[in-house]
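YM 10:42: Actin cortical patch SUR7/pH-response regulator pali sequence, as discussed on the call
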Amino acid sequence: MKNLSVIFPIAASIAAFVLVLLALLAGQNPGFMEDYDVISFNTSALGKNLVLNAAKDDEPTPTGGGFCSDLPGFLGKGCATATAAIGSIESAIVSEVNDIANDIADHLSAELGIHQFYSLHALSICEGSFSPNATANGATRNVTRCIKGATEGYNISAIIDHQLQIGPFELGIDDLGFDDELQSAMDTLNSAIKAFVILLSISVALTGLSLLTSIAGFIRYTRPVLIVNVVIASLAFIMLLACSLVITIGARKAATEVTEKGDDIGLYATAGSKYTAITWAAVGLMFVTFAYWLWQVIRFKNGKTDLHRQTKRSPRDSEEAGAEKPNLHGIRFSKGRRSRR
Ligand SMILES: *[C@@H]1O[C@H](CO)[C@@H](O)[C@H](O)[C@H]1NC(C)=O
Ligand SMILES: *[C@@H]1O[C@H](CO)[C@@H](O)[C@H](O)[C@H]1NC(C)=O
Ligand SMILES: *[C@@H]1O[C@H](CO)[C@@H](O)[C@H](O)[C@H]1NC(C)=O
Ligand SMILES: *[C@@H]1O[C@H](CO)[C@@H](O)[C@H](O)[C@H]1NC(C)=O
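YM 10:58: structure's back
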């Protein structure tokens, strides 16, 4: 009994397979599905605390040479460059500190030698700058480079730390006020992403397998094939569900904690919503596939009985018709059939 409705699980499996494959490969090359990040860090204002603290200290004597001269040597240079871009620093009084902060956001990261954003994908970390600039409304990401996370690790603070050290001021991430609490939030994220990538890889294999067994179910509609389909589809569904839960909860928790603790030093994180949308869509599609095959198994049982009755009735009817003649074999055969059922 070939049923055209089998198109549904095949289509759902193809779609789920493509989605999880894309989820795995997003961000593999600079700009490829850049919006589909797990979490992204806006570091355009990282280090603003150093500049702002200096600006506050400057408040009592706004005319005293400007706040850049009060900055520790390593930042004074960067500050001067940043503020030079916004004009005279005599007018930069504390009431305008927020404006200064915004303008700093566009220049500070470059001064420090880091990038304006770091986006974490399943297999890579991409970095780059905002276009047209960090503070513009609807700024888009201009990816400069992607680092393979699977081989080089997902520790974004280590990457930033390294770039700061080779930067013009030879700072470390600790100099910016990056504390243990913040690092522990980052480390939790690292663990979550590693677990996620393993689960996601298994999900890619299982959804691919489910596609193959769904096609097999179309070609050979037998009970064992149907049961294999149910098992594979349910495993794929459970794996994808675990995947989506880990990444949805992990990324959101990390983003909240990092933003909470990083606000002072100008570090912000956002969990990627487009990314979780595709993983949850895959979860839904695998559920459809699983439900379809489960339904087929249940139906197959009944269907077989119906089929059995129908196909066996006609020979038996003829046998019974034949049994009206004194034919012992025919009667025995039909009794045997009956008792077997
Ligand atoms: C992206 O950055 C590169 C240099 O890093 C620059 O040449 C290019 O114009 C930028 N693209 C956009 C759209 O801003
Ligand atoms: C990045 O952070 C800065 C500083 O808080 C903010 O002004 C800017 O709007 C953010 N940019 C993006 C694209 O999120
Ligand atoms: C950032 O870009 C916006 C839109 O292009 C522009 O209005 C704004 O002046 C820019 N800010 C800086 C500091 O260049
Ligand atoms: C990540 O890098 C930071 C800074 O180099 C370091 O303190 C931290 O221990 C690293 N975390 C892991 C899990 O390696």
